[in-house]
Each structure stands twice: as structure tokens, then as C-alpha cells.
Amino acid sequence: MSIDADDSREETGVLPVDISLTLGEGGELWVARDEDTGVTSQGPTREAALDNLDEAVAGYRGAGEPPSDADLREAGIDPERNESGSIDESDIFE
């Protein structure tokens, strides 16, 4: 598991439990995968890959805050025109 005894990430309760950790094909990045959810992340070190996986799994499970209007603008999204909808109705996910 990717947690140290004094790690504050324990508070979220969303850490991966069953993970695999492998060195990527190019040998430069470590790949960490949560086997229960299928969420995968990577990093230049094993620790970074596991930290990134913890964050990705937390996001997968709904942790975090919705983006602010400023966050959306920074990502190039106009908050006034931002609409949520079904993936089935999106032409991006065809």
C-alpha cells in the first residue's frame, strides 16, 4: 500500500488497497494500478506513482471539490456556457 504510518491521506478513507506497481516499458516511469477500480497512474519514482494513484482513486470515488469559475477559466472553459450532460449525449465520447 502507498501509505506511511503518519500519512495524513488516511483521513480521506479512499486509499487503494489492492495495487500493482510496475516499471513502465521505457524504464523511466513507474505505473501504479488500483486493481479494485482499474484506476491507473504513474510517476518518475515508485513513491510518486503511489501518491498520484492515491489522488486519482480519491477523485474516482468522488473526493474533492467542484471546480470554481476561476478554475474553469484557467482550463479554457467558459463557466457561463459550461453544461453537464450525459456521456451518451456527448459527441466527444462516440
UniProtKB/TrEMBL annotation:
Residues 59-94 are annotated as: Disordered. InterPro entries: DUF7387. It comes from the Archaea. It holds the Pfam family DUF7387. Residues 70-83 have a biased composition (Basic and acidic residues). This is Type II toxin-antitoxin system HicB family antitoxin. The lineage of its organism: Archaea, Methanobacteriati, Methanobacteriota, Stenosarchaea group, Halobacteria.
